[in-house]
Specification:
The chain is mostly helical. The chain has four helices and no strands. It has helices spanning 3-11, 24-46, 53-74, 86-116. Helix 2 (24-46) runs antiparallel to helix 3. The chain is flat and about 65 Å long. The mean pLDDT is 82.
Length: 123
């Protein structure tokens, strides 16, 4: 055998990385879900369907979280098996760090506001 054949056998053929590849059906499904998950919050805001700004914001954030998952599954092809599970581990680590940073920031800002702002009734 030649050197290039030995190299191909040792490292696998080019393009044979067993990574998940999307199909047209998967991309169309992801696109349609993305459009629906964008249109519904737009409709909720434009028609003031819920009548409460806080509830509307919470619903929009929920739709955004679902849309993130749709993008990761249908367009980024992330699942528990991709890259030997390291993609999912990296995602979980990132989510944990972001939650810690956001929760800590909100906690610090709340306590700074509570403890450092002058009493408005005395002014």
């Amino acid at each position: 055998m030649s050197g290039s054949q030995n190299h191909a056998e040792a490292h696998g053929a080019h393009g044979d990385d067993h990574a998940p590849h999307g199909s047209l059906r998967g991309y169309v499904t992801g696109f349609l879900l993305s459009v629906i998950l964008t249109a519904i919050p737009f409709w909720l805001v434009m028609n003031d369907v819920l009548g409460n700004a806080t509830l509307t914001a919470i619903v929009i954030m929920a739709f955004a979280a679902v849309q993130i998952v749709v993008h990761m599954v249908y367009f980024l092809h992330m699942n528990g098996r991709s890259e030997g599970g390291w993609n999912m581990m990296g995602l979980i680590f990132t989510i944990v760090i972001v939650v810690i940073v956001l929760a800590g920031s909100l906690w610090v800002m709340y306590h700074l506001n509570t403890n450092m702002m002058p009493d408005m009734h005395r002014m």
